[in-house]
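Supplementary notes for students who missed Thursday's class. We covered one full example, reproduced here. Read the sequence, then the structure, then the short commentary at the end.
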Amino acid sequence: MIQPLSMRGREAVVLLVEDNEDHVFLTRASFEEARLQINMQHVDDGVKCMAFLRKQPPYENAPTPDLILLDIHMPRMDGYEVLDAIVRDEALRRLPVIVLTTSAEAVDINRMYDLRCSSYITKPLDFESFTAALTQLAGYWLNLVVVPHGNE
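Structure (token representation):
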């Protein structure tokens, strides 16, 4: 029986795909502030994300993420291209992808849902609100929802 991530006896692996170092710091600090048991991995562009997910060099030993937090606007391969590649890949398509971005534009929201994102969250601007949003996100995705996992 597959259980919510919090009941699997290990830290949840969250892959943050984000090119803005300030947002990476804020995300890591928010998870720590909320005292969430998360193994946060980070890559700063979509090409690295796909290599990480496919365990290609230099990510051969990378853990399989339970959740992906995906920014939209990144160099080399943007969030649209990443999500499209994930849903087209039989081995990756069940991974929950939460878009975590500064864009509140309807065109971005609609396009990411058209590509089958699991959720779309606009990043709050202040630390307290950002931490509250990530705490709610983690509560939902780690404690309530049952997500698929390839090794279980």
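Commentary. The chain has a mean pLDDT of 90. DSSP finds five helices and five strands in the chain. If anything here is unclear, bring it to office hours.
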